[in-house]
């Protein structure tokens, strides 16, 4: 899924939500200004 290491469930959920919003082109106030690497296409 992501980098190895322990993550709190809330962190995992937030990351999944951010990825979903980015994938669907949704802008939100706390979106990072840094251009993130595009995730690999899902099969």
Briefly characterize the structure.
35% of the residues lie in helices and 0% in strands. It has 43 residues and is mostly helical.
Q: Any chance you could write out the topology, listing elements then pairs?
A:
Elements lengths: L8 H15 L20
How would you describe the overall organization of this protein?
This protein has 43 residues and is an all-alpha fold. Helices cover 35% and strands 0% of the residues.
Instruction: Tell me the major beta sheet.
Output: none
What is the CA–CA distance across the termini? 14 Å
Q: What is the percent of helical residues?
A: 25-40%
Assembly state here? single chain
Radius of gyration: 11 Å
- Would you identify the regions where 5 or more consecutive residues have pLDDT less than 50? none
The global form is: globular
Q: Whole-number average pLDDT?
A: 77
Run of helices and strands: H
How many helices in DSSP terms? 1
- What is the count of β-strands? 0
Strand content: under 5%
Q: From the helix content, strand content and strand pairing, which structural class follows? A: mainly alpha
């Amino acid at each position: 899924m992501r980098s190895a290491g322990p993550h709190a469930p809330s962190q995992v959920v937030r990351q999944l939500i951010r990825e979903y919003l980015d994938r669907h082109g949704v802008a939100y106030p706390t979106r990072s200004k840094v251009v993130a690497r595009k995730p690999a296409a899902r099969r």
